[in-house]
Amino acid sequence: MKLAGIACAGLLLLAGSAGAQEGGKAIIKSTISLGTATPGGGFPVYGNAFAEVMNAADPALSIEARNTKGSNENIPLLESGQLDIALVAGEPAYEAFMGIGRPATKLKILTAMYSSPGMFVVRADSPYKTIRDLVGQPVAFGAKGSGLPILSRYILDGIGLKQDEDFKSIYLDRAGDGPAMVQDGRAVALWGAGVGWPGFAAMAQAAGGARFIAPDAGEIARVRAKHTFLKPLTVPANSYPNQPTAIDSIGSWSFVLARESLPDDVAYRLARTLHGQEAALCKKLPQACETTAANTVAATPNAALIHPGVMKYFREAGVAK
Q: I need a labelling partner for 29 at 20 to 30 A (CA). Which of 128, 241, 248, 286 fits?
């Protein structure tokens, strides 16, 4: 069963079939290409865990995680059939589904990944305490092709700030470069989101520690009033070293999206395997504890955006009507 086979920039992305043996019986193995993002960010960590758990659970699946430039590249790669499934942050997904700045996409949701409350991290000895304290300073807003700079742009716009005018914005070639820039002073803060994000973890574990800066209650209300698709979200206490209290912020859910032409039976099998392994994925990666069938139904703005094969499984499992 060939699902895709298109060469792009010298990288052959395939979703085909291969033979395997289990118990003396031949198994047709479906190879699924999974786009993640640049090394050092949260998407490759999640993508690798996702692939490992799924491949271990279903010997007929071979999910191959591949580094890309992130959400903004994953969407067109899916649309052109060069990826089968891919990780996409909430804001680029929202813009693609709504047709903001582009034609509305026909991609489908395979699953919700995790919620992404956005916030800045600074060194613990930094003099900066609020978002407005960072105005005029060099700030690393994430990798160029990722969804993080889009989330920050919406949040800052909601509180009356312009990302590329009110800050000395830095966009990274690799997500993993951000913490070192804050540590050595090239940037005063790093923008990121969620639980288990590698940039936050690296900062919090560095000598001297780190401190987080999130929108305050008034700023959250202003953002929600202007950008209603963003939701109040919380980073639980002790998600990172020396973070004794919960941090309230605002953000959205990231998704695993599928190309429109992914066959229903393949999407069904992926959903059945994934949600049968929710506990195993949670054990492997804390932020993946939010990857559940129930969260997918709740986080999806419109049930019609969920892949029909996934919806078939959800109805059978009793999580959707």
A: 286
